[in-house]
Structure formats: C-alpha cells, structure tokens
Amino acid sequence: MRQPLRLLLVAALLITPVAFPQTLPKDVRKVTTVEGISEYSWPNGLRVLLFPDVSQAKLTVNITYLVGSRHEGNGEAGMAHLMEHMLFLRTRSGRDVKQEMTDRGAEWNGTTSDDRTNYFEVLTASDANLDWALKLEAERMVNMRIEKELLDKEMTVVRNEFEMGDNNPINVLYMRTIGAAFSFHPYGRPTIGNRSDIENVPIDKLEAFYHKFYRPDNAVLTIAGKFDESKALVGIAAGLGAIAKPTTEIPKTYSVEPVQEGERTLTLSRRGENQAIIAVYHTPAATHPDTAALEILAEVLGDTPSGRLYKALVESKKAVNVFVNEQEMHDPGFLLTGVILRAEQNIDEARAIVLKTLAEVSTEPPSEQEVDHAKTRILKQIDLELTNSERIGLAISEFAAAGDWRLLFLMRDRIRAVAPQDVARVAKAYLKDTNRTLGVFIPTKTPDRAEIPTAPDAADLLKDYKGGEAVSAGEAFEATPKNLEARVVRSKLPSGMHLSLLPKKTRGGVVLARIQLDFGDEHAVFGRTFAANLTAAMLSRGTKTKSRQQLQEEFDKLKSNWSVSGNAVGVTFTVQTTEANLPAALRLAAEVLREPAFDQKEFDQALQQRLASIEQSRSEPTAIGSNELQRLLNPYPRGDYRYVSTMDERLEDTKKVTLEAARQFYADFYGASNSRFLVVGQFDVPAMQKLAAELFGNWKSPKPFVRAPVVYHKVESADRKFETPDKQNALLAAGLTTRMGDADPDYPAMLIANYIFGGSAGARLFKRIRDKEGLSYGVGSGFSAPPLDDGATFFMQAISAPQNTPKVEASFKDELARTLKDGFSAEEVAAAQKSWRDQELVDWADDNTLLSLMSTHERFDRSFKWEAELEAKVAALTPQQVNEAFRRRIDPAALVYVKAGDFKKAGVYQ
Fold it and tell me: Cis peptide leading into 305, omega within 30 of 0?
C-alpha cells in the first residue's frame, strides 16, 4: 500500500552543518544547504545529498530514480516494480548484486511507489564500503542484464508477491477503491501491477523502460551516516558522475484526472472474515498549501483514541478499527478513510456514521484543542525522527519524487502554521459527496464539484528557502562489545530491579529506555494466559488519574514514542524521547505500570479488537501454517503459558476473559522484584539511578518469580496440510527440535551453518528457490537456542503460489540432502563468517538492539563479553566444524512439515 506523507515525514533527518571541502570536482556545483543537508548538482544531471553523522558507525547509500507506476503505459502495469527486482540480479560484468551485498553484511532493499523507485544499502562505516557502494550503484544505473532468462525466473517471484497481497481482502478493497476513484490518471493502478502484465511483459519493453528512466539526470543520490565528504565527492565523480547524460529526453507524464462529478461506489465480494469500508476523496498535490491542513484533518478524524471517527465508531462498538491517510504525491492525490468491522457488526449503520462524521467537520469545525493535539502528534514524530540518519533515504525519496526534497521541511513549517479555520476550509472544499468514491452511485441535477488546484512549481516555491535550526550532533562511538561493556553502568535497587545504563551522546539528545518485569511461574499462571494478555493490553488504556487520550497527549507533549506489551510471565514498557523529557516520560511510565485504570469501556474495546484480529487470522495461510508449526514444536498442555493454541481455541479462550480476571491477574503478579531498568542514549547516570529508585525502589512483587525453562522436547515427524479456500498465496513450513543451548560448543557453528543454508539473502535456499527457480518471494530458515536451557529449534518457511508449493518442498528437501551430503565449502564458510560479523556490527549500532542485549545480560548474568567471545568463536570456526555440527543437529527424517493454502483448487496434494 501507499504510505501517507505524514507518516513518511517521520523518517527524515536534520544534521549539524559541517565544513565543506575547499574544492569540488570539475563542474560540480553546490546548490543549497537546508538545516545541515547539502545538495550538489553534477554536469550530467545527477543530484547528490550528503548527511554526515559521526554518532553511528553506519553508512547508508540510497539512490532514488524518479520513476514509478505513474510512468507506466498500457500493458506495463507493475513494470517499475519488476524493474526494481531486476536491479538486484546480475550485471553485464558478471556481478551478483544480492550476493555482494550479503557478503558485506549489508542491510539492503528497494521500494517502488507511484512516483519513484529507490535502492538502499546500510553498511558498517568505512571508506572501502562507501567506495564499493558507489561503484555498485554506478554499474546498476546503466549495466544491468535485462534478459529473458533472468526475467522468467524473477517474474514468478514478483507474481508470488502479487499473490501475497491478493490474499488480503482489505488490501484488495484498498486498491479497488483507489482504482475506481481515478478514471484516467495512472494513480488508479496499484504499484504491484496486475497478473497479466506481470506474466506477459516483453523483455524488449522492459529493457526500453530501463534505458528511458535509469539515467543520471533522473536520479537523486543520498549518502548518510559516518563518511568522509571529500572522499564521497571524489568517488561519485569517478562513477555516477562520469556516466554520460543521454541525448534523449526523459518521458514526462501528462494525464490530468478530470473533476469527479458524482459519488462512485463499488462492492468487493470474496472470502474473508472482517468487513471493511473505504472512502476516497481527491485532494491536491504535495506542493499545494492545502496539504498541511489536510494532514491535520486526517489526524483529527482518524487518531486513536481522540479522533472523531474513532469515538463515533470504535468507542460505540460499531466497528473495531478506523484509519485516515492523506496521500500527497507529485500530482493531485487523495484522502482515504477506512473502517474495519467484525462480521456481526452492521456495515450499513457504520457507513452512515462515517459519512455523517465526515460531513460534520464542515458544520462543526475542529476545535483549537483538536487541532493542537493533531499538530503535537505529527510534529512530535518529526522532531523525534529527525535524528535518524539511516532512514533519511525513504523520506527524501518521497519528497524528491513529489517535487523537491526540501518539501519535507516546508511541510513541517506549514503544519506548524495550520489553524482550526484552515482545517474547516479544506474539509468543506474536498469532503464533498460528489468527490467521494465509496460504493453507491447517487445521481444529482446540481453537481457540487471539488476543483483541484494546479500544483505550484516546487523550484519557484523553494528558491529562497533556508529552513530552521539544525539538530545537535552526537559523538563518534564505535559500538563494539569492548566499547559497549566499558560504558555500561550496572546496579540493583532494594526492590530487586536491576539497572543497566549505557550513556552516550546522540543526535538531538535522543534516548531509549525500557522497563521489563518478570513475574509468576509456570504453575501460578497456568490457565491464565489470555487474562494476562488483556491485562497487558489495558496498561496503555489509561491510569487512575488519566484517560487513555490524556495519557497519549502527555506523552506527545514530551515528544515521546512509547509502547507496552506483555504476556503471562512478563511485561515490557519502552519509551523513546529526548534527554530533557526523559524524567517526565519515565514518571508517566511508572504511572502506566503501577496505576492502571482498568476501565470497562476500554476493556470492551480491547477485547473486540483482539477478537477481530484472531478472526482475521483464521483464514490466512501464513498465520495458520506458522501457528501450526509452533504447536507441533512446543508440545505443552493446554493452559501452560507456553502452549500454542489453535485459532479456534484462541477465540474461545479470549471471549471468556472478563475485566475482573484481568484486574485480578495484575493484583496477583505485577511488581518489580524481578525486573530490569535499561537506558541507552544521552542522559545523566546518577540522576537516572536516583529516579529509578524513586519510581520502582519500593515496588515489590506479590508472588515469587521462577523462570520457566525452555526445555527440549523430542518431536515426532509429521506432515500436516490445511486448506485455505480462495487464497492465492500458500505457506510451506518445516521444523525440528534439537537438545542444545547457546553455550553448547555446536552453537557458533550452527549459526554459520544456518546463515549459509537459509538465514541470509545470499543463502542456498534463497539463491535456489527464489533466484534460480523463481518459486517464492520469501524463503529462508532460522535457528535458535536458548540461554541456560536446551530447547533449540531449526525451521524453514517459504511462501508460494499453491500450485508451486510441491516444487518448493521438493527443492527444499533436495537442497537439504545435498548440503548434508556434500557440506559447505571453505569459501562459503569464510564469506559467511565475514558477512555475519559485519551484520553484527550494524546491529550493535542500533540502540533498540542494545536494549535487548542488555536485558538478556541482566537476566542471565552476562555482559558484552559474551558477544565478544561468540564473535571470536565464530571467527575461529573451520569448515569441518560447521559441517559436522549441521550434520549432527539436522536430521531430515525428524522434520515436521506444515502446508497451508488453496491446494484443492490448484490440484495438488490431493
């Protein structure tokens, strides 16, 4: 699906200005600097954006081509997305793009939207990695193999991705409604395309598309992270900057959607569980001033729990969920409203409430408080995420495609200036019956048309734009186990809570904190799993002194993102904020954990939403197959919190939970006697220790905690099949158990063996089943072994068209047999050892990962020395050790197989 522009705003980054090189490469011109982001122009038309960030030892290279589904012609639906896939295959010089990225331990991907296609790789920061990435992108721009042999294999992968989305009726309704809203403009076509065009696209048309749009004067290169600007400019000059600008003009789109002259309606009829309503209204392009007020309007209508639609539908139990997105694009876009209902809820009544609520925005304009709340939420997200250099590429991609990357900042400024009368005005201008696509056609003799203004020129709009203050920079910190361990400060409170604090200077003073409580034991919580789940769900729905909405508003004012989740033996509260706001945010966190309200109305809403989620999963092959594999690999009795319920059991047991049961679970178990208080980022250690003692030092748990072990169960081989009618995507899953913990001598070898076999994008399963045979969009394997205990598991999963599932199964079995027989080569092992370590370096530079590692350390009496030792063990592995461990632990005869899909219709597995 398309992502709303207001959500993409949060991926942006501001950085501290740095000194620019004294000289630039020949004929290169510096265009502008806005809030620390510098743009350069090259003679061949290439645009370059540089964002140094020394605070993280990572490097992100992103290249955006200003071509998307908007640029496709008849018979070419999905071509831009198909081209995205082709650019990860082979170059004319013989380079294997995905393999090279995997070998360097990169995090990589590409995405396609209506207006652009982008490719990015995140690597450990080094001159060598930057040089490699720039050379790779130069080759991908003009030297890819666009050949029928490669297309035939990748086409089936893309078709499988299409089928995956086609399984979800709400996703299909989304695409169909947008398609009905646009009569002529290509925005009415989904980016994924349609089956016939994907299957039949001629190779010469695909190659022509590549040469038409993949060129330097249609590209924006973004480099963010820790790098040397001078070396980057030199590297660009030698590669992308040296590619000749084609003599042909870039094809321009020119379709203009006519003004809609009456409401359009459609009905989607297919198998599924939940009902849905979607309404689409045409709105202006991203450069138009009205888009800021429309963003606020979307928040006023769709926010949870303060939005008008939420209050009118979810609080009244007429629906289980609502959402509103304002989609700004290069050309006029749309505002979309969605409502999800359970099967027994009245869709006609809900539709009437939706239309009435939307109409009332004009007659009952938003209050100052509603608008301020919406602005606070949106601007909070922007301010928080302006510190993330890794995600800048996606935000820049969207705004560059919409007209100019600086629109990101202009949109922020415009949102700050929106007043209630602006929101009322745009609601009256665009939320018209005649401008709506819903499901019913209503003729009228007096059309009331919404005239969509012409988009202002982005260059004129922003020629003198300077922006605001840049965010403060962080420190250059290399996140190695040795350095991390040297920074961690550990202590313990009288309540039993363990403190693990890792201070470091961060961009914008950002800090992450996590509070984790362990409680109960496997006998005390027996039979109370679903009450525990709803207990945890109630924590975010209000305290004794604050309603759910007031609680959210308080966190918004503190520029804090927060979440809380839990189960029968623990709960986790996580908050992201700034140094200045951390104490107040943690006081709110303590209130959430220690003083929940347990309001009946909120409980009823939480229960309904949980039931709807379970019902939706009952017909989904991926959910059914994954759940069944976990059931087979975890043979605990029903009632044990480790027991994996069937979908029907889950529904039955959830319906039985009462508010009193949730209240009682909280009273019986919640406390901090066995807990962890973890903080990573910019903060004062003594002050944080003092605050933790104040908030949690006296909070004792009512009952003792005894950790339930993850024990080995010998599981008999099995082969289960589940029919999921009318689903175009299927799942194959397989797994086994082995007696092993992460202290076992085989553990490092199994990590590398799985990495080579199916645990990475360059793995054997991926290269064979996806790249070579083109049978699956997503295929891979996993291996996990617990600390202290011995319940290790190995598993694989693959999605495919149902008719291809037997082929996927045969390929998996054959590849496993070949691997066990012939083993991994010395070259494979060496490459995997390097790639695995590079990936670890990238992970250690992520603060959320650090919180998880620190939590594991406190729980199992470890330190970052454990990661350092594991790193050394992996580096010392020999091919013989890896092969022997894999053969010892993986027995094909012990595998459990699960398949879920519409196999009857496909004529397989009969």
Answer: yes
